[in-house]
Amino acid sequence: MSTFFLIFLVMILLDTSISSKNVQISEATEWNSTRRQLEKESCKIGNPIDDCWRCDSEWETNRKVLADCAIGFGRNAVGGQDGDIYVVKDSENDDPANPIPGTLRYGVIQEEPLWIIFDHDMVITLKEELMMNSYKTIDGRGYNIQIADGPCITIQNVSNIIIHNIYIRDCVPGGNTMVRDSPKHVGMRGYSDGDGISIFGSRDVWIDHCTLANCRDGLIDAVVGSTSITISNNYMLHHNEVMLMGHSDDFLDDKNMQVTIAFNFFGEGLTQRMPRCRHGYFHIVNNIYTGWEMYAIGGSANPTINSQGNIFIASDNNSTKEETIPGDEEWKNWNWRSDGDVMLNGAFFTPSGETGPQSYIKASSMVARPASFLTNTSPSAGALYCQRGIPC
Ligand SMILES: *[C@@H]1O[C@H](CO)[C@@H](O)[C@H](O)[C@H]1NC(C)=O
Ligand SMILES: *[C@@H]1O[C@H](CO)[C@@H](O)[C@H](O)[C@H]1NC(C)=O
Ligand SMILES: *[C@@H]1O[C@H](CO)[C@@H](O)[C@H](O)[C@H]1NC(C)=O
Ligand SMILES: *[C@@H]1O[C@H](CO)[C@@H](O)[C@H](O)[C@H]1NC(C)=O
């Protein structure tokens, strides 16, 4: 019964989401308002992040509470909790070398902590990568905020970043020009890859309730010694190489990387790398995967992957039933376990390495819910439509 319910939800979700790249992304996850209404009555549903803030009808005045709601390896990311509110009013006039007050870029490069919000719906098309400074929150709640059709977000050599409730889509490469990354420093940037969010040499990063689609390189890549990251409640769709964790087998600083990937919805049109892991420790918990075209989870260089309480729904293509890289034998030496995952439509997984929980301590960051939690509640991943004065 719950399987049918889930497939039903998935069908509705596919129906309401974007179908091609340049269509405006709608409120993809709010597909059943009756259900949402019922949820508000009994509000808390068992997702520890959402239960921490979504039931509060005063979420707007209590925005900074969000920073206390993180779970997993990125839970210490405080973002701009200790700083002022900065309001983005200007969606145009992006000047990468000399950012203009009122733009998103002016806010994110500042030295002091800032909690960045918006004052109307906007599509921001950046001229160059958005170079973030430490202790910033980008909080899109209350409006439809899209970073689209230009270079997107770069989190490089910084810490304590929260990105919440925005759409990131159709990101393209930029670079070979001057870009400011703090009030005191403007530097020459090489060519960028066209990632949605590029995390490079950074720590304490939390990306929650974003909708990411159709970028030139990765949707979210974390490389070069980045760690203490949580990627949660996101909705990802229409993309080839979804998430790269660790850029090179030779880069040993990534040995201590710890990343939590929880409560995400991997939707239609995704091909591979959800994620692709190198070295490091990956806790992949309570996500829903639908119909990957090559594989869902893969990697190299002996990562430890602790996969718990996820749902994997294979596509109808008989060649893509295996959730891991088909025919690739390398993973036989890794620690890779599947604990309480549900495999549907013929999906399968081949575990490797240690099976005992003690081998997965460094890849354990939160208590997994049983997979049935995902089938019994309506998933509400991706950017949300939050209205003032009522629970979101
Ligand atoms: C929406 O959810 C409610 C409550 O579960 C259910 O009764 C109703 O049939 C659903 N409506 C649609 C259109 O799926
Ligand atoms: C980040 O650190 C690396 C290595 O120290 C350095 O090459 C790079 O220029 C730094 N990037 C920025 C934006 O500071
Ligand atoms: C997929 O495999 C099933 C079971 O082996 C078989 O019945 C079906 O015809 C196959 N489908 C295709 C398209 O090959
Ligand atoms: C099935 O998947 C394989 C491997 O990715 C691919 O080569 C093939 O084209 C797919 N078949 C269809 C009908 O999509």
From TrEMBL:
Pathway: Glycan metabolism; pectin degradation; 2-dehydro-3-deoxy-D-gluconate from pectin: step 2/5. Binds 1 Ca(2+) ion. Required for its activity. It catalyses: Eliminative cleavage of (1->4)-alpha-D-galacturonan to give oligosaccharides with 4-deoxy-alpha-D-galact-4-enuronosyl groups at their non-reducing ends. The keyword Cytoplasm does not apply. SUPFAM superfamilies: Pectin lyase-like. SMART domains: Amb_all. Transmembrane segments: none annotated. Keywords: Calcium, Cell wall, Lyase, Metal-binding, Secreted, Signal. Residues 121-318 form the Pectate lyase domain. It is found in: Secreted, Cell wall. This is Pectate lyase. It comes from Hevea brasiliensis (Para rubber tree).
